[in-house]
Amino acid sequence: MGLSERDRAILDLEGSWWAEPGTKQDAIRSRLQLSATRYYELLGALADSEEAERYDPLVVARLRRRRRERRRERFEGRGAGRWRAR
Fold this sequence. Notes:
By secondary structure, the protein is mostly helical. The longest helix has 20 residues, at 57-76. The protein has one domain (5-70). The model has no long low-confidence stretch (mean pLDDT 89). It has five helices and no strands.
């Protein structure tokens, strides 16, 4: 089916929002006219998309890694998989 223009815009924003002035939420609203909640719903779906992975493999890999880390933290406790000083 391919990525829509909005899908590509979401991936582009996720890969570059820190280069813009203001907060990420401001960038989401101004560039995409989406709520942060809807943005993250769509972004989560894009993380599972092969088309998104072909479009921006680095952003999708980062999204998938973060999702794995969050799941691990939920099941194994905070800081799971992270090095901690003793």
